[in-house]
Amino acid sequence: MLELLQSYPGRPTSGLQFLALPQEILLLYPSADSIVVLNAHSLVFLRALAFWEAFPGMRHSYMSVQCLSIDAGMKLVVASMGARVAAWILSSSGSGSNKAQSSWRLHSSLALPEDQEITALDCKSGLLALGTRSTLSVYTLILENDLPTWSRKWACNAKQLARVRFSPSLMYIATTSSCDKVVRLHSTTSGRQTQTIPHPRPVIDINWRRPCLQIYPHIHTHMDDPIMYTTTSDGTLRIFLPVIDVPQRVQLHGALDAASSLPYSDNPVEDYPVGKDCAKSSSVFPLARDVVLEVLRGIGEAEDTTSGRRVREIVEEGWDLFLRVLADGSLVIQAVTNIDRRPPTLLRQFVLHQSISGLLPSPPPSHLYILSPLSNCSRPGTLTLITSPPLASYVLAPIPFLDSRADGLALLARASDQIDPETDSERLREVSQFVRTPEGDGVAALHTDRSVSTWHVRWSGRGLARRGRWDPTDAESVDRVVVLEGGVCFVTYTLSNGHLTLHGATATTIAVPSLVALFSLPSSVPSSTLRFPPSLILVGVTEAHTVLLISVSLMPTPSMSIRSETSLPLSCPLTFILPVDPMSWGGSPTSVPSSDAHDVLLSISEDGELAFWVPEDFCDRLPDPQANDRKTVSGIIRNGGWRCTGRVRTGRKGLRRAACSSAKKSVLVAQDTNGEELTIWDSKTSEFSSGLEYREVFSSSDPITDLDWTTTPDAQSVLAIGFAHRVELLSQQRMSYFDETAGWGRCWSIDIGRMLPHPIGDSIWLARGSLLIGAGHVMLLFGQAARATKDIQHEESLFEHVARYNGPLDNYHPQMILQCLLWEKVGLVKKIIINLAKHVESKEGDISWENIPAEEFYQKDEMSRSVHSTRKPQHSMLFSVPEAADESRGDQFSRTLVQRLLEHLEVRPLPHLTPNEHASLLVLIEATLEIEEQRRALDANGLRYLISMRTFYITNHRLSAPNTPASARTGAISRRIKPRKRLRYRDIAWAFHSESQELLLSTSIAACGGKMTWPDARALGVFLWMRSAETMKAHLEIIARNQYMAGDHRDPTACSLFYFALGKVKLVHGLWRQAAWHKEQAQMLKFLSNDFLQPRWRTAALKNAFALLSKRRFEYAAAFFLLGGSLKDAVNVCIKNLDDFQLAIALARIVEQGDEGPILREILNSTVLPLAFKDGNRWLASWAFWLLHRRDLAVRILVTPLLDIAAVLDVTITDIGNPHYDDPSLALLFSQLRSRTLQTAKGMSEISGRTEFNFVLQIARVFCRMGCQVLALDLVRTWEFQRPSRSSDTKLTTHPPSPVATRFAFEPALRRRSSILIDMDPSTAPPTRSASPISQLANSMQPSIQESVQLSIPDERPKPDQDMGARKADFGSLMKSAKQDAQVPEFDMSAFF
């Protein structure tokens, strides 16, 4: 996803320290107030240890860490700042499991007097040597009350110590001073100075030679002898060995100077071709003897070449190797032999190898280290070379290097330099703010000391290049900064004096009013059309919320001028004026206003209203850079205004932060009672969408500190939310038809709390999806993962992830297949399945899928079926012979093909499908086969219900399966997805409006295993969608029998409620005769033997019902209420105690023998409708209105706002929830019901054309949010805006009576239907909304017949009220025509001839 590409912690200015772990080697060095921890081989940033963790009072002291030492044995890191010492320890769990980022903890601390500034330190085996400007002291580590503390052992006078080094035996301490050229040796036990060793040049380094006991175990007698190397500023290394008679003293035994490294000449310094300067500017370094010999021993045993024999000689004789780097970048390896001999009188030194020039950069590094390879190294037998500065790591292969081969030394990694070589690391300050160019290819960092550094984003987006730095004077202070031209120049604003300064080749300053915001816009004219770079536009917002437009010209002479100062035409007070992120702009934001002009500003009022603005007539032309008239160049050309392009009312007040993306997605952060509320709003609003897409409340303990947007190549927005120690990325998520997913979700999280203790100062998106984070003085650049190769597979990038979770879907995606099935594109789905079968059988790896052309989605289903049909139907006289499927054809949709495809997908799921999506795909493929086999008997709505039911059962079955690795491989659904208890009311509505309910009922029974119980019936909504009273009675009896037979015991109480509803009391009495095991058998047999038609026994049944209620036997209590003849009490128990309104409706429809009973109507009015409005469930409300014979409202509820519907109801609706216009099937049901009956036509007449237009656009947007853009296009292409035809005041023309003549003057769309249901009295039907005023223009319009209305409504369309009046007038004409033809004509045989 996003990986750490580069880190900018500052370059090391002193020596490096290393800590070897089992799985990696850590590199540490001080930088500013922290210790930087890197991987020594890859130089990847791991962590920074802040000194103020031990001393919080030094958090903003602007001091730097001076000294650093590592105790490898105790894994202790000791650092000093001023007169204080802090120590960190790496826990054993961290070192063993390679968790160097999170396993560091503070170990101990030590504070000296303030005047004792520590200048040198060393720590070994629990001993700490500290050197100050006047003393040398040694401390020992002790445990006091289980707390590690440092206890001073001794102290002596010393002057300006620069280096302190313990010997390997810990018997001696070597020191150097910055005020002389002497090396002093002290006794570790007493502190007594044992020896002084003067040098001709300043000493720049001291190294003690470590014994190699593992390689040479026989050399143990001299392991405590002090052997010391010193290096002076002239590049000379001196070798000091112990004196034989006085072993505590050392003497000079050899020196390696620059001249000794240039062989083959009597006067090498003068005659060597490289020259004297090259030799004198060289650097020499001792190579770690134990590391080198260990690696060479393994190589020499395997190599039998000349170089291999030389390597074996080095190992066998134990040579000491030294590496000298010359100014031309060449390397010289020198060897010294016989150092371990006693007496060491036979020392011999010579040049072992000299490389070609240019292997290392020039000048030579100040520090060089050799490291052992790791056990998991990809190139065994190699060494790692670390140089500084510049900090870089190299792979050194000894045999190829000695053979002078090109692969002998290869660059492994190079660190990013955050500061210039001449800039002191002490000047590093914490980052407080980032500002980028509009295109994101340049960024400026504003630091806490008000200095500015500018950077350019490299072309690959995987690194930054330093462009410049500006340090303010004592009298200057930078409050705002804008970076221009990819970081080449920048503009600063100083609030104290109101100066705006352009920093480039020459500084230019103008005075401006007090600004609260300053940002830049992209170039307004392509640079290819000008001889000079175009003028850049800065936008400044003043304290009075006026907008300044400032022109910046860089060539030929840098200049700035104020073009205009305007105010936004707003009457309400403003909170923010922010820029609309221009990251994805491809055109001109400031050109002549057009429909595709980019919004430039976002204003936010105090009451939370968002307004988007574009400059109107900003400029008629650009100033000519060559004009002689300076006023023409720098003067204000035209005072342009601002045009508002849209408004969004959010209702949020007290906003703390806000930001707007290129796609006009606005994020707001406001204080909430529970914390900080973050909301994301879309700029497109209507009566169907408030614009709110996402809401989340964050804890106030971790407040939001930053918001920033970026845009993907396919114009999707990604939001970065900054907190103190992490950045969370939110992207838009595809809307799912299977699960309820939020509109936005976290796609990635970057937690730097394990890397940096500093809080995040700022984070910002850069070009090509790079995210720059500044914490403390460290900058971290995160970016897209490297491209995958044939051998290495990398995870997908951020942009790929966002496109996969929110972009257009492939045809084979289950969501696309499901929508095609719901919208009657079965033939197209069959073609998709056939293509999928071909691809999975022909491809062993990933599928190279090609989507079906969009044109085929626009075809009718009959046309799609004809594409797959290869044989014409056979006819025998008047009767058609059913066409048999050709199973032999492999490219035909058949059961064989589907079974083969399912078997293949079970073994090898498709890539990029979640387990839930994969399971849904298998279900839909199988359901498509069942649809094809049963589509002659099922209508379209029945097919929709069948699809939903099959998906429901198979999904729940997979969720109940054991979650094993095998099940995961075959598409088991993630446990995070909870099983559904029932079908959605949307699916139940399809079955309710189906004309093949008998087949649906048999299919539902089969899905339940042939024995449907009440939980199964409730899950499928059977008694909500069945319309036949006789069928309901028969099916309820079946359910009662199955309830009784369920389980091992035959309990009559389980079925009594259903049998009592059917009036079969005697049957229940018979069941009790067989329940001898039941303790209530005798009582029930006696009680049920009575006649419950008599009031006495009905009263007794009601008393028993109340007694059962007190015992919380609710279902049995409802049964006794039915036995006592109180249906109302029974349904109340079902609703209030059992929370099962479906059971209440089933009982009411059975007992009242239809849908006209008062109890059923009361349930619908008092329970179902309030529940539907509370949940915003339009499907349930439409079903309830249909049963209540308010079918006009059943249509209107699908489109009209819930508040408007609630206003015309007889019942009081107080709780109205989310309107939920995110279901495209609403349009499908609306298109079916709007012309089915006279009532629905009446309801349709009360929906304005503008409302229907916005509704279709909303459904199209929902399709796009679901990834079905092609279906959205098909919807807007084929939608017909049906309206009742307008009739004149003249008398209607009567037609001769005919058996086939229609009675009503319907609109053309209605006349295309074969029939329309007369379900209302035309003379008494009440209106469902108040009448709208009808304009004279609408009354004077002539009758017109309109088949369909294009989506691009012309400007001369009537206003909503006028359109509503026309619709109501037309419906009145429709009612008159229906009332006029009230008598059925007699049958006339002559009408046929």
UniProtKB/TrEMBL annotation:
<feature type="compositionally biased region" description="Low complexity">
    <location>
        <begin position="1322"/>
        <end position="1335"/>
    </location>
</feature>
<dbReference type="GO" id="GO:0007035">
    <property type="term" value="P:vacuolar acidification"/>
</dbReference>
<dbReference type="Pfam" id="PF12234">
    <property type="entry name" value="Rav1p_C"/>
</dbReference>
<dbReference type="InterPro" id="IPR015943">
    <property type="entry name" value="WD40/YVTN_repeat-like_dom_sf"/>
</dbReference>
<feature type="compositionally biased region" description="Basic and acidic residues">
    <location>
        <begin position="1354"/>
        <end position="1367"/>
    </location>
</feature>
<dbReference type="InterPro" id="IPR022033">
    <property type="entry name" value="Rav1p_C"/>
</dbReference>
<feature type="domain" description="RAVE complex protein Rav1 C-terminal">
    <location>
        <begin position="641"/>
        <end position="1275"/>
    </location>
</feature>
<dbReference type="GO" id="GO:0043291">
    <property type="term" value="C:RAVE complex"/>
</dbReference>
<protein>
    <recommendedName>
        <fullName>RAVE complex protein Rav1 C-terminal domain-containing protein</fullName>
    </recommendedName>
</protein>
<feature type="compositionally biased region" description="Polar residues">
    <location>
        <begin position="1336"/>
        <end position="1351"/>
    </location>
</feature>
<feature type="region of interest" description="Disordered">
    <location>
        <begin position="1319"/>
        <end position="1367"/>
    </location>
</feature>
<dbReference type="InterPro" id="IPR052208">
    <property type="entry name" value="DmX-like/RAVE_component"/>
</dbReference>
<dbReference type="InterPro" id="IPR036322">
    <property type="entry name" value="WD40_repeat_dom_sf"/>
</dbReference>
